[in-house]
C-alpha cells in the first residue's frame, strides 16, 4: 500500500497533500475501518468551488427575482408605502433566524445537507409569496418572505464552504469567486420582471407573482446541484484532516464512492461539532480578528440593505416603470458581485483592513449620491446604487476573510452562523427603520444616515487594527 505524506507541522497541512495521490483514507486508530475517504484535497477544493459557483448562479436568480418585487408587492397588497419595507425586512429577518438551525445542521451533517435544506425552505417561501399575491394576503406574504430568507442564508454560507479546504494565501480569492458567481443570476433576476409579468399572465396570476416562479425554480435547481456534486463534504473533510494522524502518513485507499465518508465523519465523536450560535457568539467576542470581521460584514450589510430596499419606492414615487427599477437593481447587484474577485485578490495581497477602509469610502460616496438623487430615474441614483453594491462587496469579502481566518476548524459552523445571525438581525432592523425614515424624513435622510454608519465602521477598523491577525 502506498503512502501519501502530509506535513502536520504546517498551519494548513492538507493543501500540501501530494498531488499524485488521488484518493486518501484517514484511519481511526481504534479500529481498521476508515472514518474518512476523500479525493486528493487540491482536486476536491477545485471541485467544491466550482460546484458552489454553479449553485450561486442558480440561487442568485431566485434571490434577486424575489427581492426586486418584494417591496412593490408589499405596497400593492397593503396599500401603504410605509409597510413596503417589511417584505424585505422579514426576508432578512427570516434568513437571520434560520441561520440558527442551518448552522446546527451544518455542524452535525456538513455543508451539503445544510445548503440543501436552506434552498428547499426558500422554495417553500417563494410558493407562499405566489399564494399571497393571488389571495391579496399581507400576513401570508410576510410569512413567505421570511421563509424565502433561507435562500439568502444558503448563498451567504456558501462563501464559507468555499474556504474550508482553501490554502490561507488564496482564501480571499476563492471566497470571492463564489461571491462573484452570484453575479450572473443576480443581474438576470431583476431583469426577469418583464418575462415574469408575461408568465404570470399566462398562469392567471397577478403580474408581480411571476418573479417568484423564477425564484422557486432557481432554488430547486441549486439544491439538486449541491446534493449531487458537493461530495465529499468540505467541512467534514477539513475537520478530519485537522485530527492528529494515526500514523506518520495518510494511506491511499481507492474508495468507490464519497457518500459513506460523509456519513462516517458525521458519526465520529472525535470530529468537532460545535454548532451552537451561542458558542459561536462567545468565540467571536474572544477573537479580535473574528470580531472585526463580524462588525465589518454587519455594518456593510446594514448600510446596503437600508438604502437598497427603499430605492424601488423612491423610484416609484417618480413614476419610474418597473422595468427601469429592475435595471437599476440589477446594476446594484452587479456592483455587489461583479468585482468581488478584485476585492478577494486585494485582500490576499494587501490584507483585509485596507480593503475594508476602501469599502467604507465607497459606501459613503454611494450613500451621498443616493441621498442627492431626484425621485424616479436618474444617472446619479444608478451610480450610487452600483457603488453601494461595490462597497458592500469590499466589506463582505474582507470581513468574511477575517472570520474564516480567525475561527478554529471545530468552531467554524457556529462562528460563521453566529456572525451571519448578527448580520441578518441588524440588517432586518435597518430595513424596518428605513421605511419609517423615508416615510417621515425622506430618502435623502436615509442616505445621509447610511454614510454616517459607514464612517463609524472606518473608525472602528483603524482603532482595532493592531490587534488583528490574518494568519
Overall domain count: 1
CATH-defined topology: Growth Hormone, Chain: A
Radius of gyration: 22 Å
Order of strands in the sheet with most strands = 1-4-2-3
What is the succession of H and E elements? EEEHHHHHHHHEHHHHHHHHH
Examine the secondary-structure arrangement and name the CATH architecture. Up-down Bundle
Strand percent estimate: under 5%
Q: How many angstroms separate the termini?
A: 35 Å
Summing up helix and strand content along with how strands pair, one would put the structural category as mainly alpha
Q: Tell me, what is the CATH class?
A: Mainly Alpha
CATH superfamily, by name, is MFS general substrate transporter like domains
Main sheet summary: 4 strands, antiparallel
Query: Which runs of at least 5 residues are low in confidence (pLDDT < 50)?
Result: 1-39, 247-260, 268-273
Mean of residue pLDDT values: 82
Oligomer: single chain
Total of helices: 17
| Overall geometry | globular
Give the number of DSSP strands. Answer: 4
What share of residues is helical? over 70%
